[in-house]
Structures are given as C-alpha cells and as structure tokens.
Amino acid sequence: MELIADILMIAGTFAVGVYCAVLARRLSRFTDLEKGVGGAIAVLSAQVDDMTKTLIKAQKTAAGSAVKLEDLTSRAEDVSRRLELLIASMHDLPEAPKAGPTVVSSVAPRPGSADGNIEGETLFLSQRTRVEAAE
User: Fold this and answer.
1) pTM of the entire predicted model
2) Which terminus of the chain has a lower count of CB atoms within 10 Å, N or C?
3) What pLDDT, in 10s, does the model give residues 4-54?
4) Are 39 and 33 in contact (CB under 8 A)?
C-alpha cells in the first residue's frame, strides 16, 4: 500500500510541477512589455502624457479666447450704447413728407471729362431727395 501511496504522491507532485510551469509561462506573457498587460500599461501611460500636454495647450488657448471674448463683448456693449443713442436721436427728426421713392444717382466722373457730368453707373439708390440727404 505504501508503494501505491508513494506513486500517487510522485504523480501529484509531477502534476503540480507541470501546473506551476504553465502558470509561470502565462505570468511571463502577462507581464511582457510588448504584448501583455505591461505593454498596454506603457502605451496608456504615453497616451496620458500626450493628453496632458494637449489639455494644457487647450487651457491656454481657452484663456486667451476668454480675454478676447471679454474685449469684444465690451466693444459690442459700447457700440450698442451708441446705436441706442442714434436711434433715440432719430425720433427727434421731423417727419419727411409722404412722397414716392425717388432715385438719386451719384455719377463718378470719367477720367478726361471736363465737367464730370457724363452719365455713368449709379453708385447707390436713396429714397430721400437731395435736399433731405444734405440735411
């Protein structure tokens, strides 16, 4: 009986040795820097560094944009105040007579013309008469 127990003990020891060898190979593959988890950790670490640099650049750009936006907002508020004053001053003007639209043409003199009264292209159209436009 002792012989059978010793044979089973040797077989069990051999099986445990094989099992340990398989685990050791798996563990070495697992921690391999090129293919295993170690490689994945190295790649992720490099990506974290790149993302950190990108985030710092984005924060600097956002800070610069915020300053520009504040400047533009203050300029827009100033222009808004001016426009409000202009619109308010438009209410003080007397009303124009109710007449149909008139076409006023501005003629650019042609080079070489003595008096500049030669017909040319119309530069703009106005619904006000020349007298109203001069006021």
Assistant:
1) 0.39
2) N
3) 999 999 999 999 999 999 999 888 877 766 677 777 888 889 999 999 999
4) yes
Give me the chain's average pLDDT, please: 79
Q: 87-121 burial string, b = 16+ CB within 10 Å, else e? A: eeeeeeeeeeeeeeeeeeeeeeeeeeeeeeeeeee
Euclidean distance between CA atoms 121 and 108, whole angstroms:
7
For every residue of 44-58, DSSP letters joined together read HHHHHHHHHHHHHHH
The rounded distance, in Å, linking the Cα atoms of 112 and 16 is 111
Q: How far is CA 121 from the centre of its chain?
A: 44
Instruction: Please state, in angstroms and rounded to a whole number, the distance separating the CA atoms of residues 33 and 40.
Output: 8
How many residues are present in the chain? Answer: 135
DSSP state of 92: T
